[in-house]
What does this fold into?
Amino acid sequence: MSLDPRTPVLVGGGQLNQRSDPVEPVDMIVRAAHLAAADAGAPALVERIDSIRVVGMLSWRYRDPGLLVARRLAASVRHTVYTGHGGSHPQALVNDAAEDIAAGRCDVVLVGGAEAWRTRMSLKARGERPDWTWQDDSVPVPETRPDVPMKDPTEIAAGLDRPAYIYPLFEQAIRVASERSIDAHRDVIAGLWARFNEVAMGNPDAWVQRPYTAEEISTATSANRMVSSPYTKLMNSNNSVEQAAAVLVCSVEAARRHGVPEDLWVFLRSGSEASDTARIAARPRLDASPAIAAAGRTALELAGFTVDDLGPVDIYSCFPAAVQVAADALGLPLDDPARPLTVTGGLTFAGGPWNNYSTHAIATMLREVRRTQRPGLVTANSGYLTKHAIGVYAPTPGDGFRRASAQAQADEAAPTPVAPEYAGPAELEAWTVAHDRDGRPATAMAALRTPDGARTLARSEAPDLVARLATEDLAGAKLDVSADATFALP
It folds into this structure.
């Protein structure tokens, strides 16, 4: 195969489930890196890494984890990156790596991350801290990537302060737009998640290795409590994991020089990124993402493919709403038995190690593109369906790696006017009800439309209203909103 020697190629992916003997996060990345090099058929490749890019970790605070990984690998690294928080970072880092390799700035790049969250929480419950590596202020801060905004005052005032509340709000908007009943829609999303579970059961790297039926997923029990309607615990991302993943990206010249067999190469044909407005109340729609549509369209066009050309697909799956919105934006059916919307099993069953899930998806996509010899697509999402990164992978290079932002197209969707501190009548647009640990409805949080079409966010703890919103379809109901971001029946 005659190729430009600077063509970027993915050569290895490694994944680790640490189920016993807790290991420090950077050491988990080191183990995943060794697994990636072994997957590439070139174990010594870890010593030739010249850039290490690490996804932001919550388990421990490092200043430059890439530097620690480099020392443990005995690699002469010239460049490190450490991201802020956001699930889109893994795919964006791989896009960056491919771009840097094509430009001659790097030769062999490691992208990876890890979380030892179960260990950290277990120690915290006992009032202890882990004996892990501490980097003081003398360690230079590496190149960084920013956090994705997730704390708008209108959201905080309404109690919508976390993904486990906002994604169910999106889910209700999807249901209302589909004109499904509450029961019918619950069956749809439970069926979707059961299909994800089936994929996880065939994925040796999935954290959960237990089958669940759609009924088990949707039924609230003491072991599967309702978190925020309509989502039970089994419809939420599973962050209580000890996982690491790493992928190796290098130039064709480096792959040949280090003896990586060509039948293991997978080419990143394209990458694209775009963001929706971070402010939830200003979204054009709560059941759609102009940014995913634009980035997906751009990435496929750059790669020279259509949706129909795709084989394996991995849609970011923190919650069912995220999958439905992305699938609709990309033109992918939810229930095609020949093409599931995940290669891993998703963040509930494969594992949701905070910001690093998509590194696992990319490592698994590498395996699936090799196996199927068909192009694959990965979407990665930060925040509340806010920032998106997409990659298209293929067994052949096409015209080489191409990348473009899709932000201009995403910005063509006009934002919705926001009415902060609004007081007056409003119509119920979408809502969710957060439940307490005992499964009782506690707080309703809602998006409402004012008479002039603006959107406001509000909450209610009125027991009768909260109970009704937990079980009834009140879409379009007329409510009274107060300036303190609460709502009530008129």
In short: The chain has a mean pLDDT of 97. Residues 261 and 330 are 33 Å apart (CA to CA). The two ends are 72 Å apart (CA to CA). The chain has 15 helices and 18 strands.
